[in-house]
């Protein structure tokens, strides 16, 4: 007589019974299950039928992602401050600005900042940021920190979608890396004997970025 094929549920039940007879907790043999999925959270939101509100929330999560900068996964991401300052000089010169003399509108300052981000955002740095955000999302899915996970997974999803480097400039986390680097470069210039023409524009941009965070 042909033996009846057991279902997956029946096989699991038999294994659990055998483990229990041996004094082994069946649950202890199983890998921990993730409590949350960042991808699933946003997928469910986008399927909720409130596209406009969800898109606005997604955009806001990207813009405010500078709040993630203190997470341990980003500790090793450090931009050279003087390289960032040099990038600022090059971008300003390319746009024909006279940074040591004139004041410029916020739009011009933000345009310069975007140019600096594109210049310092090398492929190795992009990979480093992507790897770090993947590790952060994995950790948050395990620990169940939903609010931070929503923000981090928005950045993760966005980075998987974009192709152009220019799209990185709208991510608050990336802007914060550059802001910190420029601020450190500004401090170095301030205490040095040799003053740089870029100092005023650099200070204005840092102030502008600080104001945006308030």
Instruction: Please provide the count of β strands.
Output: 0
Tell me the helix content. Answer: 55-70%
Order of secondary-structure elements:
HHHHHHHHH
Structural class: mainly alpha
- Number of discrete domains: 1
Largest sheet: none
Report strand %.
under 5%
Mean pLDDT: 78
- Described by the principal axes of the CA atoms, the overall outline is elongated
Poorly predicted regions: 29-33
Q: What is the rounded Rg? A: 25 Å
Straight-line N-to-C gap: 77 Å
Tally of separate helices: 9
How would you describe this protein?
By secondary structure, the chain is mainly alpha-helical. The chain has one domain (36-213). The chain contains 9 helices and no strands. The protein has helices at residues 8-21, 38-46, 51-63, 81-94, 106-120, 123-143, 146-161, 172-191, 199-213. The N and C termini lie far apart (77 Å). The relative contact order is 0.16.
Present the secondary structure layout:
Blueprint (H helix, E strand, L loop, with lengths): L7 H14 L16 H9 L4 H13 L17 H14 L11 H15 L2 H21 L2 H16 L10 H20 L7 H15 L1
Helix pairs in contact: 2-7, 3-7, 4-5, 4-8, 5-9, 6-7, 8-9
Pick out its properties:
single chain, 214 residues, mainly alpha, elongated
Structure summarized in a few sentences:
By secondary structure, this protein is an all-alpha fold.
